[in-house]
């Protein structure tokens, strides 16, 4: 079992024929992801990377039974691309685009609220279920199949955590990069819930960062849910100066509870195994799973 994407996912790329879409679609196809086509308005009927190009997402759904989309569309048009995918009936929408205006994402969040779809991102590395599907920009070779789920606001720390887990002789069920923007489709708590309910996932790595309340909300839910599976937590930005955006648009300390130290305290109080450095993630996972 896996969450969000697997070998049966029928994936399309929005922004298929652009440079980013082409590069990452090639990587995804080489990985073995079931890419059934892509969307570039005005280029419908053509072939690209030996896959059909459609003018609209609804056409891709009708003709290729697409159920998953990954979006490589410039920031000015990305919100419309997300809403088009939701309107067409795509179940899993993964938006890689960075720099989408917050006002646009407010509209997107309201638009998809009552629709049967799951948005991951924006400003995220995507989702990977090792050996089955890579729907994102992560280096696939780092990820090996196993029993540890990963949730992260940071792309690079997703890969780092996966690499450490694999080097401990363990592996990954699904890794989800939720994105670092102020408004994202799937929260830390929602991603944790997906992995908590996945039979194959025995342990969860949760990587957060300064800014916002997502990690605190997730930690409180984990405790209320009975701490069913061990969770290893890390919060990035421990040395960040207060009041300054760091890296991600959402990584800005707005109050005393938004700091890395405050979040780490909340995580620990709710039964999460907190590490002080990303270098300790792999060892802590091995320790809590009893393989050391």
From TrEMBL:
CoA binds at residues 17-20, 43, 96-98. Keywords: Ligase, Nucleotide-binding, Tricarboxylic acid cycle. Signal peptide: none annotated. It is an enzyme of class 6 (ligase). GO terms for molecular function: nucleotide binding; succinate-CoA ligase (ADP-forming) activity; succinate-CoA ligase (GDP-forming) activity. Its EC number is 6.2.1.5. Coiled coil: none annotated. Pathway: Carbohydrate metabolism; tricarboxylic acid cycle; succinate from succinyl-CoA (ligase route): step 1/1. Heterotetramer of two alpha and two beta subunits. This is Succinate--CoA ligase [ADP-forming] subunit alpha. It comes from Aureibaculum algae. The gene is sucD.
């Amino acid at each position: 079992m896996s969450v969000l994407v697997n070998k049966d996912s029928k994936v399309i790329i929005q922004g298929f024929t652009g440079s980013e879409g082409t590069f990452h679609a090639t990587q995804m196809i080489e990985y073995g992801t079931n890419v059934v086509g892509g969307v570039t308005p005005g280029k419908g009927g053509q072939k690209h990377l030996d896959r059909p190009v459609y003018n609209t997402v609804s056409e891709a759904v009708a003709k290729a039974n697409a159920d998953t989309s990954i979006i490589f569309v410039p920031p000015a048009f990305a919100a419309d691309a997300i809403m088009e995918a939701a309107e067409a009936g795509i179940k899993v929408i993964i938006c890689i685009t960075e720099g989408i205006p917050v006002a646009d994402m407010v509209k997107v969040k309201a638009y998809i609220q009552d629709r049967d779809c799951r948005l991951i991102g924006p400003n995220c590395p995507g989702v990977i279920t090792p050996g089955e599907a890579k729907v994102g920009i992560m280096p696939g070779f780092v990820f090996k199949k196993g029993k540890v789920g990963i949730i992260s606001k940071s792309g690079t720390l997703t890969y780092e955590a996966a690499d450490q887990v694999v080097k401990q002789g363990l592996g990954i069920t699904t890794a989800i990069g939720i994105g670092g923007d102020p408004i994202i489709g799937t929260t830390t708590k929602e991603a944790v819930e997906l992995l908590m309910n996945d039979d194959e996932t025995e342990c969860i790595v949760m990587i957060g960062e300064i800014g916002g309340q997502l990690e605190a909300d997730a930690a409180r839910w984990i405790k209320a849910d009975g701490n069913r599976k061990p969770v290893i937590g890390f919060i990035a930005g421990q040395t960040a100066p207060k009041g300054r955006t760091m890296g991600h648009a959402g990584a800005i300390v707005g109050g005393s509870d938004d700091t890395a130290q405050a979040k780490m305290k909340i995580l620990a109080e709710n039964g999460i195994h907190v590490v002080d450095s990303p270098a300790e993630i792999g060892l802590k996972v091995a320790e809590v799973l009893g393989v050391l």
